[in-house]
Amino acid sequence: MSFDTLAPHYRWMERVLAGGKLQRCRTEFLGIISTPQNALLVGEGNGRFLEEFVRRFPTTRITCLDASANMLEQARRVASPESEISFLHANIFEWNPPRDHYDLIVTNFFLDCFVPEQLAQVVSKLGFAARSYANWLLADFCQPSEGWKKWRARWILASMYLFFRIATNLPAKQLAPPDQVLTAYGFRLIARKHFDWNLLHADYWKRDVRE
To answer: In whole angstroms, what separates CA 128 from the centre of its chain?
Structure first.
């Protein structure tokens, strides 16, 4: 899976196809979390979330992990030079994270890239890197359970997965909700908000046990 070929086009593609919906979803809960010391942004892409995150939390030490070198280059271009940001070019499955290091994990439109078996591996690795009291913010697609919203979402998601499988060799063919896996690794859903007729959702998860 590689988003390198899409990196130069991703920003305008998002604006044309989704307007500001994805960004509103990404940033929904930034106003209610406490200032993190060490934040891990996984699959950050071209840096749209990073820009807003740095504006709100200028003192946080940030690690941006992405398998696409071209996406990381896009993120570097928008990053504030005054901020403490490390850009890591690595595949999530090959990366060896520090244990109990990050008090905030962010996975925006990232977990939907994986089949269930891979999703469990990803959440396990990120849970290993997260502190016992860490927050986890995620934004992703979802599928309503009934009515016209269900059929609308099904058509959009099928088209989206087909495009990204062709363009990036995406392993997933359909959504694999991460809720059970996150719960298994000690995270509890604090808040969830839906957008765009329940096609999108923003989540705020938290571990409850302090060291």
So the answer is: 17
Residue 203: name the closest of 32, 85, 64 by CA: 32
Tokens of 186: 């000690």
Contact of 88 with 4, CB cutoff 8 Å:
no
From residue 56, give the alpha-carbon distance in Å to each of 33, 34, 61, 112, 129: 11, 11, 13, 26, 23
Question: What does the alpha-carbon distance between residue 65 and residue 40 come to, in Å, rounded to a whole number?
Answer: 7
The pLDDT of residue 210 is above 60: no
CATH 3.60.10.10 fits 4-207, yes or no: no
| Residue given tokens 């995620």 in the structure block | 138
Q: How does pLDDT run across 79-121, given as a tens digit for each residue?
A: 888 889 999 999 999 999 999 999 999 999 999 999 999 999 9
CB 36 within 8 A of CB 22: no
Listed by start position, the domains of the chain span 4-207
Dist CA 47 CA 171 (whole Å): 23
H or E element in which residue 147 lies: helix 147-168
64 in Cβ contact with 87 (< 8 Å): yes
Which residues are within 8 A (CB) of 192 and not within 5 positions of it... i.e. 6 or more apart?
A: 201, 202, 203, 204
